[in-house]
């Protein structure tokens, strides 16, 4: 699994970090980022749900 966040699109709504806190966090400006070492999703089942929860579609999850 490969997770990509388009920071040009992210509005810092935080839904991703709320939905999958083991994978996503928010930086000092409130924008989403993937936790270090979790770029592959870390087996977290809620990664796809987090991508769906993003109101602006900034998260792309693909099978690597
Ligand atoms: S849910 Fe989407 S808009 Fe909100 S912080 Fe996460 S990536 Fe950004």
Automatic annotation (TrEMBL):
Presence of keyword Electron transport: yes
Names of the cofactor(s): [3Fe-4S] cluster
Keywords on record: 3Fe-4S, Electron transport, Iron, Iron-sulfur, Metal-binding, Transport
Record InterPro entries: 3Fe4S_ferredoxin, 4Fe4S_Fe-S-bd, Fe-S_cluster_ET
Origin: domain of life: Bacteria
Keyword Transport listed: yes
Residue intervals of the 4Fe-4S ferredoxin-type domain: 1-29
Known function: Ferredoxins are iron-sulfur proteins that transfer electrons in a wide variety of metabolic reactions.
Protein name: Ferredoxin
Gene source species: Streptomyces kaempferi
Native organism taxonomy: Bacteria, Bacillati, Actinomycetota, Actinomycetes, Kitasatosporales
